[in-house]
Design goal:
It contains 10 helices and 3 strands. By secondary structure, the protein is mainly alpha-helical. The chain is globular.
Length: about 200
């Protein structure tokens, strides 16, 4: 079933997608089924109805708000969104603290509108991620299946992160295209040894 997932991913092998799934689950042990769904959903569809900063005033205000969160300064600059890694979650505090240009990240965030989401690719990522849940984890495959049955999954609805997830991990991030971010900032590429 998952041999097609490698074809759908433009950049990464099944082994690399397994590593990305494991990293997300390890970094977010409090994640519930809805949070995993949203992480995959943003990786395929972008920010959706979640408002991203669109000008410098909004971005500087978001940075100030993010600095008040308990995770301020502890996050990596970027994290993959979804298993095909088309989009990145850029944590705005480490980005700002590194002296990176704020206007440039806003320009990159605008570029996600150029991406075409694919519902089938999203559903395959969801199915693949369920195979990464093993006994002993806080979340179970039964919880993921139950969540899937409670929503109109066939329509891939947009659902937010849970309140518990946003309280634990914050909302101080922008979504940008992975290839454009690393093209603009090659020093942060995973091939440079930093993330």
């Amino acid at each position: 079933m998952f041999e097609h997932l490698q074809e759908i991913s433009e950049h990464f092998s099944v082994e690399q997608m397994t590593t990305i799934a494991e990293e997300f689950l390890d970094r977010h042990p409090q994640a519930k089924a809805q949070d995993i769904y949203r992480w995959l959903w943003e990786g395929e569809f972008g920010a959706g109805s979640r408002s991203q900063a669109s000008n410098l005033d909004e971005l500087t205000s978001a940075i100030r708000k993010a600095r008040m969160h308990k995770t301020a300064g502890t996050q990596p600059m970027w994290e993959y969104l979804g298993l095909t890694q088309r989009l990145l979650h850029i944590n705005i505090i480490p980005y700002s603290d590194a002296g990176c240009p704020l206007k440039r990240i806003l320009n990159l965030a605008e570029r996600i509108r150029d991406f075409r989401p694919d519902q089938l690719r999203f559903k395959m990522q969801w199915g693949f991620l369920k195979t990464q849940v093993v006994p002993g984890m806080r979340i179970t495959v039964d919880e993921l299946n139950s969540f899937e049955n409670e929503i109109p999954f066939h329509m891939t609805p947009e659902l937010p992160f849970t309140d518990e997830f946003t309280q634990e991990y914050g909302t101080g991030y922008l979504i940008v295209p992975q290839d454009l971010f690393f093209e603009t900032f090659p020093e942060y590429s995973p091939h440079s040894g930093e993330s």
